[in-house]
Structure formats: C-alpha cells, structure tokens
Amino acid sequence: MKLTLIIHSLTYGGAERIMSIMANYWAAKGWQITLLTFDNNKVPDFDLDSHVNYIPLGIAEKSPTAIIGIWNNIKRIKILRDAIINSKPDAVISFMSKTNTITLLATRWLNIPIVVSERSNPIKSSLGWNWQQLRQWTYPFADKIVFQTQRAKDYFPSELQNHSCIIPNMVVLPPIKKHSSEKFLTERSLIAMGRFVPEKGFDLLLQAFAKLKDNYPEWTLTILGDGKLRPELETLRNQLRLSDRVHFPGMVNNTYTFLQQAEFFIMSSRFEGFPNALCEAMACGLPVISTDCPSGPREIIRDGTDGILVPNEDVSALATAIERLMSNEQERKSLAARAPEVTERFSVKKIMGMWEEVLAQVIKKKPKFI
Question: Helices (DSSP H) in the chain: which residue ranges?
Fold first, then answer.
C-alpha cells in the first residue's frame, strides 16, 4: 500500500501527533508512506520512522493582502498537486480544514481516493467566511470525511454526513520507565496541560483553584504548556494570590513523568476536538475531571466510573468537583483504577483498523488511475 499523508506542519499539537503515529504504524507494516507538510521545517517535532518519506513543501508563508493570498494559494495547489502525483499514492489522507480544502482542490480530477479529516470542533473553530465557503464547496469532492465525534459530524449538512464516518483518536500506552527519583511535583499536586489559548480555559481553572486555596493549603497546581496567553495567565495567577501555589514549567519532554507524580488531572476547556491530553492522563492511571465541553470529553470519560464531567465554563461546578477529589482519597483511587481502560477502548490497533477499513472502502470504490 502506498499512502500520502498531508498536514500543515508537524509542530507540537494533537492532530500532528496523531498523524505521526499513523505514519509510523503503517511504515512499520511495510507500507510506503509519504508525509507532506506545508511548512519548511526540516526536522519535525515528532519522531518519524526512517522509512517515512517526509517532505516539507515550504508553501506555508502568510499573505499580506487578499490578492497576494489568491496567487499564493494557486501556487500552493500547483506545488501540492505535483508532490501528490510524484508520490503515486493508492490514497491520500489530509488533516485539518484549510489543508483539506487545498488538498481537495489540488487533487481534483486526478481520480485518487481522498480522505479528509476534521480535527477540531467545527462549531467553535472559526475559519473565516472565505475558508468556510471553500470548505462547503470542496468537501463533497472527498471520498470520505472522518470526524472524531458525533457532535462534530452533526455540524455538517446531511449530504456530507452521508459519506462520512467517526474515528476517534488512538491512545498510546505511556512509556514504561523505572520510577524516577527526581520529584517534579509536590505530594498534593493537581495537573493540567495544553496550549495557552482561550479555548483551553486555564483562566477558569485558576479561578476555580483560587476558591479552594485557603481550605486546602497543601495542594498545588501545575499547568504544562505554553502559548500566547502566558502573560495574561501569569497576571491572573498573581492577582488571585496563587504565585506560590500555581506553576507554569512550560513545554516539557517528560510529560508522562509529571503526570505519574500528580494526584489527579483537570481539563477546563471551553471546547475541544478529541483531547489527547485527557486520554494520556487516564492512560497514566490518573483520576480526571473535565468540562463537558463540545466535543470529546463525553465520548472519553465514563462519568463517575473513570472520571468526572462538570458543566462547561462553570467555575463553581469545577471548584466543587476539584474539592470532591481533594477530600476523598478513596474516590481518587476508585477512578484511577478504571482510568487506564481508555487504552483498550481507544487502542492503536483498534483505531488504525478503523482507518484501514475506510481506506479499503475508498480504494475499492475508486481504483487509482493517474
């Protein structure tokens, strides 16, 4: 099997990580995998199997005006089309809305099976009017559209849903390492992680934690990650008098070590696609609390069995759930015992089997002819 995978970049991010896992999985099976990115980053942030043909196309530059933007997109389509033809794929898989749109334009009339995948919440993620119209026009060209959740699928018109399916993210087992003697967290630590952007709701988490700081002085909160909101979050932390209780270590390579030293994990997002961080925390055997945001957490957490769901953007409800686990070690243990089952429900083998079934369908429907 020869596949061409397409994504904007392989820098830090959930969709990027999933595509790297897919590329490596199929390369290990002996499939010929070409991975095209729009950026010019010669060294991706994620390790790739040596057999993956990774080609950064260098077509991601921003356009200063709309006219130049149109011209640049024409060039992007031409360069991408040539790269796809040269890779001679049995099928193409593209991730993320804008990349999907350009891929569908680049492959028009090539008679190659094309699978596109929405990786964020389309209800909350604004593309802008022009891109939204392009997506609406081009998505019918796809042989299959893959969504991560039912709520994401329901956003689109029925004619698109008719040739779509749902494939959640896989959950990779955490690396098995000897217990580290180095302590990164205190004994009573809460942990969260993600990009410092509005949708992650870390401002809500800080406000919720502030409600409990006086009654639970031994507890601290660590938020892994970085982003444009870091200055604002640091200011809010200081305003809430949490400077000695809330820590922002930035991006770390040893994520699993931090997770394994925490008491429980909190996800305060306003919206998600299919949150990898939540799955990773559960795979590490952590009890979790998450907002019941659109979309993803409800499909992952079995409320009261392996985690707790709280109303979205409700600071008081979030604080109540945090206090519930802070004060109940037995419930923490009970949730933690069931949390790793997420690796069975969303195993790599099971999820990749779903992708392979989709590929078999589209290739059978449209035999390759270039």
Answer: 14-28, 66-87, 97-106, 129-138, 150-154, 158-161, 202-210, 230-239, 255-261, 276-283, 297-300, 315-326, 329-338, 342-345, 348-365
